[in-house]
Design a protein that fits this description.
Blueprint lengths: L4 H16 L3 H14 L3 H33 L1
Length: 74
């Protein structure tokens, strides 16, 4: 089974969010910085993508929780 880079980024982001919750984006950025320090520009770009995806996932979860709380108030 082949997966695209975008799918791999999404999978890693979801795993990081599951494991590290709100710290997932910053953890991904730390790893990106480490790769950048080793002059791995491609790896750095991928992990910055993971950080962005993790932020999006956390925002979606937060929005869903807010919606659920508002529906419960009615």
């Amino acid at each position: 089974m082949n997966i695209s880079l975008e799918q791999a980024i999404e999978i890693h982001a979801r795993a990081l969010v599951q494991r590290h919750k709100g710290k997932a984006p910053s953890n991904a950025r730390v790893y990106a910085d480490r790769l950048n320090g080793h002059r791995d520009c491609d790896g750095c770009a991928v992990w910055l993508g993971v950080a962005s995806a993790a932020e999006r996932i956390l925002d979606e979860k937060c929005a869903a929780e807010d919606l659920g709380a508002k529906q419960g108030e009615v």
